[in-house]
Design brief:
Blueprint: E1 6-11, E2 14-19, H1 30-45, E3 51-56, H2 81-97, E4 102-106, E5 109-111, H3 113-119, E6 123-127, E7 131-133, H4 147-155, H5 157-166, E8 169-171, H6 172-177, E9 183-185, H7 190-202, H8 206-218, H9 224-238, H10 242-252
Parallel strand pairs: 2-3, 3-4, 4-6, 5-7, 6-9
Antiparallel strand pairs: 1-2, 7-8
Length: 262
Protein backbone atom coordinates (compact mmCIF):
# COMPACT_ATOMS: atom_id res chain seq x y z
CA UNK A 1 0.00 0.00 0.00
CA UNK A 2 1.45 3.35 -1.03
CA UNK A 3 0.12 6.62 0.35
CA UNK A 4 1.07 10.14 -0.59
CA UNK A 5 3.98 10.18 1.87
CA UNK A 6 4.50 6.65 3.20
CA UNK A 7 4.84 3.11 1.87
CA UNK A 8 3.25 0.27 3.87
CA UNK A 9 4.41 -3.29 3.16
CA UNK A 10 3.24 -6.51 4.83
CA UNK A 11 5.09 -9.81 4.89
CA UNK A 12 4.46 -12.75 7.23
CA UNK A 13 3.16 -10.63 10.09
CA UNK A 14 5.80 -7.89 9.72
CA UNK A 15 4.51 -4.45 8.71
CA UNK A 16 7.17 -2.08 7.36
CA UNK A 17 6.27 1.60 7.17
CA UNK A 18 8.70 3.61 5.07
CA UNK A 19 8.59 7.40 5.29
CA UNK A 20 8.73 8.43 1.66
CA UNK A 21 9.65 12.06 1.08
CA UNK A 22 13.33 11.52 0.24
CA UNK A 23 13.64 14.89 -1.50
CA UNK A 24 12.99 16.46 1.94
CA UNK A 25 14.96 13.86 3.92
CA UNK A 26 11.52 12.52 4.89
CA UNK A 27 10.52 15.67 6.77
CA UNK A 28 7.03 14.95 8.06
CA UNK A 29 4.34 17.25 6.67
CA UNK A 30 0.69 17.23 7.65
CA UNK A 31 -0.17 14.52 5.14
CA UNK A 32 2.54 12.23 6.56
CA UNK A 33 1.39 12.69 10.16
CA UNK A 34 -2.17 11.91 9.10
CA UNK A 35 -1.11 8.81 7.16
CA UNK A 36 1.05 7.60 10.06
CA UNK A 37 -1.80 8.06 12.53
CA UNK A 38 -4.20 6.09 10.34
CA UNK A 39 -1.62 3.37 9.73
CA UNK A 40 -0.78 2.92 13.41
CA UNK A 41 -4.47 2.50 14.17
CA UNK A 42 -4.84 0.03 11.32
CA UNK A 43 -1.89 -2.08 12.52
CA UNK A 44 -3.23 -2.05 16.07
CA UNK A 45 -6.56 -3.49 14.86
CA UNK A 46 -5.32 -6.09 12.37
CA UNK A 47 -4.94 -9.50 13.99
CA UNK A 48 -2.48 -10.68 11.33
CA UNK A 49 -0.11 -7.73 11.90
CA UNK A 50 2.33 -8.76 14.63
CA UNK A 51 5.31 -6.39 14.37
CA UNK A 52 5.79 -2.85 13.05
CA UNK A 53 9.05 -1.56 11.57
CA UNK A 54 9.43 2.16 10.87
CA UNK A 55 12.16 3.40 8.54
CA UNK A 56 12.88 6.03 5.89
CA UNK A 57 13.50 6.11 2.15
CA UNK A 58 16.45 7.59 0.29
CA UNK A 59 19.12 7.36 2.96
CA UNK A 60 17.36 9.31 5.73
CA UNK A 61 15.05 8.32 8.58
CA UNK A 62 13.23 11.62 9.23
CA UNK A 63 14.70 15.11 9.43
CA UNK A 64 11.84 16.31 11.63
CA UNK A 65 8.53 18.04 11.12
CA UNK A 66 8.21 20.00 7.88
CA UNK A 67 7.61 23.40 9.43
CA UNK A 68 7.34 24.91 5.95
CA UNK A 69 4.13 23.00 5.19
CA UNK A 70 1.42 25.68 4.81
CA UNK A 71 -1.24 23.23 6.02
CA UNK A 72 0.62 22.63 9.27
CA UNK A 73 1.19 19.48 11.29
CA UNK A 74 -2.48 18.53 11.43
CA UNK A 75 -2.97 19.02 7.69
CA UNK A 76 -5.53 21.80 8.20
CA UNK A 77 -4.35 25.40 7.91
CA UNK A 78 -7.39 26.55 9.90
CA UNK A 79 -6.40 24.60 12.99
CA UNK A 80 -4.96 26.74 15.82
CA UNK A 81 -1.35 25.97 16.85
CA UNK A 82 -2.32 24.05 19.99
CA UNK A 83 -4.66 21.80 18.01
CA UNK A 84 -1.86 21.06 15.55
CA UNK A 85 0.60 20.18 18.31
CA UNK A 86 -1.95 18.00 20.07
CA UNK A 87 -2.43 16.08 16.84
CA UNK A 88 1.33 15.49 16.68
CA UNK A 89 1.08 14.19 20.24
CA UNK A 90 -1.72 11.82 19.28
CA UNK A 91 0.45 10.33 16.51
CA UNK A 92 3.34 9.72 18.92
CA UNK A 93 1.00 8.30 21.57
CA UNK A 94 -0.55 5.92 19.03
CA UNK A 95 2.90 4.58 18.15
CA UNK A 96 4.07 4.34 21.75
CA UNK A 97 0.86 2.57 22.84
CA UNK A 98 0.59 0.28 19.80
CA UNK A 99 -0.16 -3.13 21.38
CA UNK A 100 2.48 -4.92 19.31
CA UNK A 101 6.30 -4.78 19.21
CA UNK A 102 7.74 -1.90 17.19
CA UNK A 103 11.23 -1.35 15.78
CA UNK A 104 12.80 1.84 14.44
CA UNK A 105 15.35 1.14 11.69
CA UNK A 106 17.36 4.36 11.73
CA UNK A 107 19.21 5.16 8.54
CA UNK A 108 20.67 8.59 7.82
CA UNK A 109 19.46 11.54 9.88
CA UNK A 110 16.80 11.34 12.59
CA UNK A 111 16.24 14.82 14.02
CA UNK A 112 13.65 16.67 16.06
CA UNK A 113 10.23 15.09 15.79
CA UNK A 114 11.85 12.44 13.56
CA UNK A 115 14.05 11.37 16.46
CA UNK A 116 11.00 11.41 18.77
CA UNK A 117 9.23 9.11 16.30
CA UNK A 118 12.12 6.65 16.46
CA UNK A 119 12.31 6.76 20.26
CA UNK A 120 8.58 6.04 20.56
CA UNK A 121 9.33 2.60 19.13
CA UNK A 122 10.10 -0.28 21.52
CA UNK A 123 13.45 -1.08 19.92
CA UNK A 124 15.89 1.09 17.98
CA UNK A 125 18.51 -0.19 15.53
CA UNK A 126 20.88 2.40 14.10
CA UNK A 127 23.08 2.20 11.00
CA UNK A 128 26.72 3.09 11.59
CA UNK A 129 26.52 6.10 9.25
CA UNK A 130 23.29 7.46 10.79
CA UNK A 131 23.07 10.59 12.95
CA UNK A 132 20.68 11.84 15.63
CA UNK A 133 19.83 15.31 16.89
CA UNK A 134 17.37 16.95 19.27
CA UNK A 135 17.55 19.90 16.92
CA UNK A 136 14.73 21.96 18.46
CA UNK A 137 16.74 24.65 20.27
CA UNK A 138 18.58 25.51 17.05
CA UNK A 139 15.17 26.47 15.66
CA UNK A 140 14.17 28.47 18.72
CA UNK A 141 11.86 25.68 19.89
CA UNK A 142 11.48 23.49 22.96
CA UNK A 143 11.44 19.70 22.57
CA UNK A 144 8.26 17.94 21.47
CA UNK A 145 6.99 14.61 20.20
CA UNK A 146 7.38 13.07 23.66
CA UNK A 147 11.13 13.73 23.92
CA UNK A 148 10.79 15.47 27.30
CA UNK A 149 9.37 12.22 28.69
CA UNK A 150 11.35 9.67 26.67
CA UNK A 151 14.88 11.04 26.89
CA UNK A 152 15.27 11.12 30.70
CA UNK A 153 13.98 7.56 30.91
CA UNK A 154 16.36 6.34 28.24
CA UNK A 155 19.58 8.15 29.14
CA UNK A 156 19.00 10.00 32.43
CA UNK A 157 17.98 13.57 33.21
CA UNK A 158 21.36 15.29 32.88
CA UNK A 159 22.26 13.70 29.54
CA UNK A 160 18.75 14.51 28.30
CA UNK A 161 19.26 18.16 29.18
CA UNK A 162 22.61 18.18 27.39
CA UNK A 163 21.08 16.84 24.18
CA UNK A 164 18.09 19.20 24.38
CA UNK A 165 20.02 22.36 25.33
CA UNK A 166 22.88 22.09 22.83
CA UNK A 167 21.06 20.25 20.02
CA UNK A 168 24.34 18.67 18.94
CA UNK A 169 24.33 16.01 16.24
CA UNK A 170 25.36 12.62 17.59
CA UNK A 171 27.19 10.01 15.57
CA UNK A 172 26.00 6.42 15.76
CA UNK A 173 28.89 5.56 18.08
CA UNK A 174 28.00 8.42 20.43
CA UNK A 175 24.31 7.48 20.46
CA UNK A 176 25.11 3.86 21.24
CA UNK A 177 27.63 4.76 23.95
CA UNK A 178 25.00 6.62 25.99
CA UNK A 179 22.31 3.99 25.49
CA UNK A 180 20.09 6.07 23.22
CA UNK A 181 19.66 3.13 20.81
CA UNK A 182 19.49 -0.62 21.33
CA UNK A 183 21.91 -1.73 18.64
CA UNK A 184 24.47 -0.19 16.30
CA UNK A 185 24.88 -2.13 13.03
CA UNK A 186 27.06 -1.46 9.99
CA UNK A 187 25.06 -0.04 7.10
CA UNK A 188 25.33 -3.16 4.95
CA UNK A 189 23.87 -5.39 7.67
CA UNK A 190 21.05 -3.28 9.12
CA UNK A 191 18.33 -4.63 6.81
CA UNK A 192 19.17 -8.26 7.63
CA UNK A 193 19.51 -7.51 11.35
CA UNK A 194 16.14 -5.75 11.63
CA UNK A 195 14.48 -8.39 9.46
CA UNK A 196 15.74 -11.11 11.83
CA UNK A 197 14.49 -9.27 14.92
CA UNK A 198 11.12 -8.54 13.30
CA UNK A 199 10.58 -12.13 12.21
CA UNK A 200 11.56 -13.47 15.63
CA UNK A 201 9.03 -11.16 17.24
CA UNK A 202 6.37 -12.02 14.65
CA UNK A 203 6.83 -15.68 15.58
CA UNK A 204 6.36 -14.89 19.29
CA UNK A 205 3.16 -15.10 21.38
CA UNK A 206 1.10 -12.00 20.45
CA UNK A 207 -1.01 -11.82 23.60
CA UNK A 208 1.92 -12.28 25.98
CA UNK A 209 4.13 -9.81 24.10
CA UNK A 210 1.35 -7.22 24.06
CA UNK A 211 0.85 -7.50 27.81
CA UNK A 212 4.60 -7.47 28.45
CA UNK A 213 4.86 -4.23 26.49
CA UNK A 214 2.05 -2.65 28.49
CA UNK A 215 3.58 -3.76 31.81
CA UNK A 216 6.97 -2.32 30.91
CA UNK A 217 5.54 0.92 29.53
CA UNK A 218 3.58 1.42 32.77
CA UNK A 219 6.50 0.54 35.05
CA UNK A 220 7.63 4.12 35.57
CA UNK A 221 4.28 5.29 36.93
CA UNK A 222 3.15 2.42 39.16
CA UNK A 223 4.32 1.11 42.53
CA UNK A 224 5.98 -2.28 42.99
CA UNK A 225 2.77 -3.53 44.59
CA UNK A 226 0.70 -2.38 41.62
CA UNK A 227 3.19 -3.90 39.16
CA UNK A 228 2.93 -7.25 40.93
CA UNK A 229 -0.86 -7.09 40.83
CA UNK A 230 -0.83 -6.15 37.14
CA UNK A 231 1.57 -9.01 36.40
CA UNK A 232 -0.69 -11.43 38.25
CA UNK A 233 -3.72 -10.40 36.19
CA UNK A 234 -1.81 -10.62 32.90
CA UNK A 235 -0.35 -14.01 33.75
CA UNK A 236 -3.79 -15.30 34.71
CA UNK A 237 -5.00 -14.33 31.23
CA UNK A 238 -1.99 -16.04 29.63
CA UNK A 239 -2.75 -19.33 31.35
CA UNK A 240 -6.17 -19.37 29.66
CA UNK A 241 -4.76 -18.99 26.12
CA UNK A 242 -4.12 -21.64 23.52
CA UNK A 243 -0.69 -20.07 22.92
CA UNK A 244 0.45 -20.89 26.45
CA UNK A 245 -0.88 -24.42 26.14
CA UNK A 246 0.95 -24.74 22.80
CA UNK A 247 4.17 -23.51 24.41
CA UNK A 248 3.88 -26.14 27.13
CA UNK A 249 3.27 -28.89 24.55
CA UNK A 250 6.19 -27.70 22.42
CA UNK A 251 8.48 -27.72 25.45
CA UNK A 252 7.58 -31.30 26.36
CA UNK A 253 7.85 -32.39 22.72
CA UNK A 254 11.20 -30.60 22.28
CA UNK A 255 10.09 -28.45 19.32
CA UNK A 256 9.48 -24.80 18.56
CA UNK A 257 5.97 -23.56 19.42
CA UNK A 258 3.59 -22.20 16.80
CA UNK A 259 1.74 -19.20 18.22
CA UNK A 260 -1.58 -18.09 16.72
CA UNK A 261 -2.64 -15.29 19.07
CA UNK A 262 -5.45 -17.37 20.57
Amino acid sequence: MTGETIIVERDAGVVTVTLNRPERKNAANGAMWQELYATFGDVARRREDRVLVVTGAGGAFCSGADIGDPKGISGDSDDPPLTRMRFLGSVMQALYDLPKPTIAKINGIAAGAGLSLALCCDLTVMASSARLSEIFSRRGLSVDGGSSWLLPRLIGLHRAKELAYFADTLSADEAASIGLVNRLVVDEEIDAFVDDWARRLAAGPPIALSMTKKLLNDSGVVSMAQALEDEARCQTVNFTTEDTREAMRAFSEKRDPHFTGN
